[in-house]
Amino acid sequence: MKKIIGLLLFAVIPTLMFSEVVFMPRIGLDVYKGIKSEALDNMMVKWINKALENGKDPNETVKYITKGDLPHSKPLITMITFGFDMQFISHGNGFTFFWNNEFGYAAGFQAYEKFTFLRKLPPLRPDDDIIKDGDKTFKENQKVMMLSTELLFGGTFRRESAFNINFGLGLRASVTPQTLALIKGLFNNQFPENNTVVAILPALGGTFGFTYYFNNVVGISASVSDFVSFGAFVAGKAEKNKTTGKFQKAVAFASVGLSNSFAMRLGLSLRVHGVRN
């Protein structure tokens, strides 16, 4: 109940502070692509090896990682998206606060590196066998669902005309619904046997769009957005031994590091306190 009240306050209070409020239900297409960065890989290897060095015992021998040990499946995911956006606009100077929310769905994805884990899962142990199969294109039928929210700051131009132009820059956060469920299950020594997609993707970027209003209230909108994120994406499935009931194998696609998300959106704009000459 407290969360619902908080969300209502977050939506209502800005309507009292800004002259114009726009609500936009929309559909769109979002293309997500993992990126491999040599510079970032070098930094990550340096950080991880330094942490291993600092955490070892005096007589312990540490096996350091190399860039080749970092997962780079570089998934390519094309999602259809359904969103509900809100824009809070000042008539005085056109300052605009964007709160964009969406649900994305894809029936499958492409990846360029696959990992197969054998024997004891979870957790992974030093004697487990990990097979990496790269330099290929893998087409997976695993369903991907993504929840995203954006908090952007920008401006709206030509506010008193039928044709408006707007832009915003800021933050975006994306996760899959299975992420929290997986984390909880791992602590209980449980691993999902169904296809699982986990992603945590904080990002920076922005949006640019146009709106045409037929009157003071109703219009249509089109926009594009682009965000660069630093996070993790893992998709996989674990299998149990039928005799022992213990996990013996898992296949996964994983990427850690940079990714890019480019989206095209089309929606209906409904505004409150709008003005059109």
Write the layout of secondary structure elements.
Blueprint (H helix, E strand, L loop, with lengths): L1 H16 L2 E16 L2 H18 L20 E14 L5 E12 L2 E13 L7 E12 L3 E14 L5 E13 L2 H10 L8 E18 L4 E23 L6 E26 L5
Antiparallel strand pairs: 1-2, 1-10, 2-3, 3-6, 4-5, 4-10, 6-7, 7-8, 8-9, 9-10
Can you describe this structure?
With 277 residues, the protein is an alpha+beta fold. It contains 3 helices and 10 strands, in the order H-E-H-E-E-E-E-E-E-H-E-E-E. Strands 1-2-3-6-7-8-9-10 form an 8-stranded antiparallel β-barrel. The longest helix is centred in the first third of the chain and has 18 residues, at 38-55.
* Oligomeric assembly: single chain
Distance between the termini: 42 Å
Assign a percent range to the helix content: 10-25%
Structure summary, number of beta strands = 10
Averaging pLDDT over every residue, what do you get?
79
The amount of beta strand, in percent, is over 45%
Strand order of the largest sheet: 1-2-3-6-7-8-9-10
Q: Note poorly predicted spans.
A: none
Number of helices: 3
Order of helices and strands: HEHEEEEEEHEEE
Taking the sheet with the most strands, its summary is: 8 strands, antiparallel, barrel
What is the CA-based Rg, rounded?
23 Å
What characteristic shape results from the CA principal axes?
Answer: elongated
